[in-house]
């Protein structure tokens, strides 16, 4: 039986387990949209139509984070692809599986700078794990299977495939490819023996976890192993659902504004065990908390991708293994090991750090988050983009089961609302909250239209301080009282939300914020709280405009 390239592509996606795509339609892949028209039944692929390709790509990146299988986005050539590129960048830096399909110009048109023509394999080569163009409809099964394999193996990440418009209309006869399963990467027994020896010689070990390939199984078994040994466990930047916050060895999170006592503990450690984490710039505060050469420290780095090991850090014991395989075998390891009391000490320090104290602001976000964690479900999914506003949730929220934190380690603004839409569609039974700053929200706030179209149940909290707060903080440090480019004149965000059918509240005090949270919790559909705050309080760590200016 012959099929069009568009139909072959849709059939391959279904075989690979895809149940949802995110897209802004384009004339360059009409053959794919036509094939999706006939999707019916329990294994049908849902088409989620978005309002901007950046939002669609963010939704796909978030979906890949939640499922462990590639999130799928479709965009048209030229402007569509360039808009969607931000999602590819985030998926790469966040080590999350994703595939972006781009409708391309006809094969005969290429090389003439045709309408919206771009060399997509070249454009995306530095952004993705693999980028290519499918020239023949007969090779679509091959390319799609390879895309799934690349996106999910080793360090997960994004793949970009360009689809010439005329290729998608070709009719050919070709067999399907079967479901691609990522290869199992078991832990080498010799490596575990070496790790055991290092642990028995250590006096102040610490673990840093979360990242590539981390899943619920890894979370369970790693906690079991660390708790048995009493090892302090810190999570990498925006990986706070990698371990149960109630674990007696959870030491808190790294990134921007971490607990100073946790930083001291890591700097003083004689053995650092990094599992899944890349130890990137944000996690290590500019490669300073742990330096690439880390004198007087031994580094054990466990990662599923051999190319990551020894790429930046001198690694004393590199272990290439799947996160769940490593964690399970470590938990079941029978050798006698020394136990430590540092895990309990670190957990007590985190609990004290996690306890918000009044900061004197009319709307105290720390107290607001505390009220939220006391009344909202433990498995609430918190989604956010970039900005200092997120620091209050990173510090005071207690993240639940995976997935419960959707936040880009790449630091991209505009991620929270699209991620929340994807989460609300993926987990309609769970509470989903998008937290956004005023600048952050307007980068993809239009995706509330997507939420409304698909009946998503979510809460959006817009923290409005009238400016780009993070940049203002840096500006006050470097050029105090010389404001330039960081002030914003904002719309009525409540009115904006109401235009999409949201139930809305505008609040300016802690008491009103808590009341709005309770009202929103008892209501379904789209809800939006416009939380007006002051620029004076710049961060959850206590930075203020006055304090920064007075340093001079």
Attribute tags:
552 residues, alpha/beta, Rossmann fold, 6-stranded parallel beta sheet, 21 helices, 37% helix, 17% strand, globular
Look at the helices and sheets and give the structural class. alpha/beta
- CATH fold annotation of the largest domain: Rossmann fold
CATH class of the largest domain: Alpha Beta
Span between termini: 76 Å
Largest sheet: 6 strands, parallel
Strand line-up of the largest beta sheet: 3-2-4-5-7-6
Strand content: 15-25%
Q: What is the CATH superfamily of the largest domain?
A: Thiamin diphosphate (ThDP)-binding fold, Pyr/PP domains
Radius of gyration: 24 Å
The coarse silhouette is globular
Helix content: 25-40%
- Note the total helix count: 21
The overall pLDDT, averaged over residues, is 95
The CATH architecture of the largest domain can be named as 3-Layer(aba) Sandwich
| Integer count of domains | 3
Uncertain runs = none
Give the tally of β-strands. 20
Please explain how this structure is put together.
The radius of gyration is 24 Å and the shape is globular. It has 3 domains: 170 residues, 3-Layer(aba) Sandwich (Rossmann fold); 163 residues, Rossmann fold (3-Layer(aba) Sandwich); 195 residues, Thiamin diphosphate (ThDP)-binding fold, Pyr/PP domains (Rossmann fold, 3-Layer(aba) Sandwich). The N and C termini lie far apart (76 Å). With 552 residues, the chain is α/β, with parallel strands linked by helices. Helices cover 37% and strands 17% of the residues.
């Amino acid at each position: 039986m012959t099929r069009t390239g568009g139909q072959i592509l849709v059939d391959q996606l279904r075989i690979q387990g895809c149940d949802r795509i995110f897209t802004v339609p384009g004339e360059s892949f009409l053959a794919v949209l036509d094939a999706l028209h006939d999707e019916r039944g329990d294994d049908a692929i849902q088409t989620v139509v978005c309002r901007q390709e950046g939002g669609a790509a963010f939704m796909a990146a978030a979906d890949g984070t939640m499922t462990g299988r590639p999130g799928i986005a479709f965009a048209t050539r030229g402007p569509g692809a360039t808009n969607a590129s931000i999602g590819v960048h985030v998926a790469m830096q966040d080590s999350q599986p994703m595939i972006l399909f781009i409708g391309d110009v006809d094969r005969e048109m290429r090389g003439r700078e045709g309408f919206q023509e771009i060399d997509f394999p070249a454009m995306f080569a530095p952004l993705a794990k693999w980028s290519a163009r499918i020239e023949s409809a007969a090779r679509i099964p091959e390319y799609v299977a390879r895309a799934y394999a690349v996106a999910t193996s080793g360090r997960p990440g994004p793949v970009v495939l360009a689809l010439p418009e005329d290729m998608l209309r070709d009719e050919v006869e070709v067999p399907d490819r079967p479901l691609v399963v990522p290869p199992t990467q078991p832990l080498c027994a010799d490596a575990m023996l070496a790790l055991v020896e290092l642990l028995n010689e250590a006096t102040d070990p610490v673990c840093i976890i979360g990242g590539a390939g981390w899943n619920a199984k890894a979370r369970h078994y790693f906690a079991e192993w660390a708790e048995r040994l009493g090892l302090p466990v810190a999570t990498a930047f925006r990986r706070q659902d990698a371990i149960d916050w109630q674990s007696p060895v959870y030491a808190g999170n790294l990134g921007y504004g971490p607990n100073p006592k946790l930083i001291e503990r890591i700097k003083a450690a004689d053995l650092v065990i990094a599992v899944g984490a890349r130890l990137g710039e944000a996690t290590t505060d500019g490669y300073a908390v742990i330096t690439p050469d880390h004198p007087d420290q031994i580094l054990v780095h466990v990662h599923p991708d051999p190319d990551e090991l020894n790429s930046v850090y001198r690694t004393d014991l590199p272990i290439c293994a799947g996160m769940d395989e490593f964690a399970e075998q470590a938990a079941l390891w029978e050798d006698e090991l020394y136990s430590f009391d540092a895990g309990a000490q670190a957990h007590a320090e985190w609990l004290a750090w996690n306890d918000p104290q009044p900061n004197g602001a009319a709307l105290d976000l720390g107290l607001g988050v505390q009220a939220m964690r006391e009344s909202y479900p433990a498995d609430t999914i918190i989604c956010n983009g970039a900005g200092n506003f997120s620091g209050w949730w990173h510090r005071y929220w207690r993240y639940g089961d995976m997935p419960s934190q959707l936040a880009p380690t790449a630091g991209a603004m505009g991620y929270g609302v699209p991620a929340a839409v994807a989460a609300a569609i993926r987990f309609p039974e769970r509470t989903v909250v998008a937290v956004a700053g005023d600048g952050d929200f307007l980068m993809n706030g239009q995706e509330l239209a997507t939420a409304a179209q698909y009946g998503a149940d979510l809460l959006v909290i817009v923290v409005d301080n009238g400016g780009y707060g993070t940049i203002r903080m840096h500006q006050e440090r470097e050029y105090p009282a010389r404001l330039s480019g960081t002030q914003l004149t904002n719309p009525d965000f409540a009115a904006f939300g109401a235009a999409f059918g949201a139930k809305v509240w505008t609040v300016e005090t802690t008491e009103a914020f808590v009341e709005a949270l309770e009202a929103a919790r008892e209501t379904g559909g789209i809800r939006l709280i416009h939380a007006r705050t002051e620029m004076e309080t710049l961060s959850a760590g206590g930075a203020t405009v006055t304090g920064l200016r007075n340093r001079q």
